[in-house]
Design brief:
It is a single-pass membrane protein. This protein has ten helices and eight strands. The chain is of the alpha/beta class and about 290 residues long. Strands 1-4-8-7 form a four-stranded mixed β-sheet, with helices on one face. The chain has a two-stranded antiparallel ribbon with strand order 2-3. The radius of gyration is 18 Å and the shape is globular. It has one domain. Helices cover about 50% and strands about 10% of the residues.
């Protein structure tokens, strides 16, 4: 991906290098993260691979934060993430204008190491990249992308990272358009199997939106970029993950879609560039 020397977003907050002690003092009830339906891994699959639920106890003590200097490689990766975020801002602003969807409200992105406090609660790096609708921020521990390559078999590369980023921004778009809120309401009234299907539709639509973003950024693509994105999508399909962890698959437990579905919807978005063709719910729920 051609990214050096281009605009960087001002909406990126880099918390990497921060070392934290115990949580800050405060009373109240225990807080549980509520991001399972929206982060990159989730549901039954996420419970096995990324137990992201953490709790904040009543007897918390003062927190000390130490900041270390980021390495040159880390700084470069921060610049890359800021550039990708800027690309999503430009693309979605244009898409919203072209389709009379109102004004695109830019999300924030937080880069962190090990653990982070969010509007949805506290999360560890085990959660993988996720979007929190409560504060409209995308949270990313970039170590995830080493895992994506070494543990899940993706090719790696900068566009694999861009695809995952665009997927999470897709969840922000769903929040702005009211899709996420409607799905949450439907899931509360549905049984587990139907709730899982709704989650799959939500995730596949985020993959479609990632493809639409790639369509609008074709001038920055290099040979092999789309293959990197497809490799990442293939690696994180529910069926691929369950085969690695269980040796078999349980379709009713899928929450993000199969490898084939994730690649198919990404490519549909990339080829059409038409945000109106991303009704994953009609196809999966009828």
């Amino acid at each position: 991906m051609k990214w050096k020397g281009r605009r960087k977003s001002g909406n990126l907050e880099d918390r990497r290098g921060m070392s934290k002690g115990k949580m800050a003092a405060g009373g109240g009830i225990v807080v549980t993260i509520i991001v399972l339906a929206l982060n990159f891994f989730g549901g039954d699959t996420g419970k096995q691979l990324a137990p992201i639920v953490e709790q904040i106890g009543n007897n918390r003590t003062s927190q000390q934060v130490e900041q270390r200097e980021l390495t040159a490689q880390e700084k470069e990766m921060g610049d890359f993430m800021a550039t990708v975020l800027a690309d999503t801002e430009d693309a979605w602003r244009q898409i919203f204008n072209e389709n009379n969807l109102g004004n695109y409200q830019e999300p924030k992105m937080v880069l962190f190491t090990d653990a982070v406090r969010t509007g949805c609660g506290n999360a560890s790096s085990a959660s993988g990249p996720f979007y929190c609708p409560a504060d409209q921020k995308v949270y990313m521990d970039l170590v995830f992308f080493n895992e994506l390559k070494s543990r899940f078999g993706a090719k790696g590369g900068d566009f694999a990272i861009a695809y995952v980023t665009a997927h999470e921004i897709g969840h922000h778009v769903q929040t702005l358009l009211g899709t996420s809120g409607k799905v949450t309401q439907l899931q509360r009234q549905a049984g587990q199997a139907q709730a899982n299907k709704l989650s799959v539709a939500l995730e596949l639509q985020a993959d479609f939106y990632a493809g639409v973003w790639a369509h609008y950024n074709q001038k920055y693509l290099e040979e092999g970029d789309i293959e990197e994105a497809l490799s990442a999508a293939n690696a994180v399909g529910d069926d691929a993950i369950q085969k690695r962890t269980r040796g078999g698959v349980i379709p009713d437990s899928f929450t993000h879609g199969t490898s084939e579905q994730r690649m198919t919807w990404f490519m549909k978005g990339f080829k059409t560039g038409d945000v109106r063709q991303g009704d994953t719910f009609a196809e999966l729920l009828n």
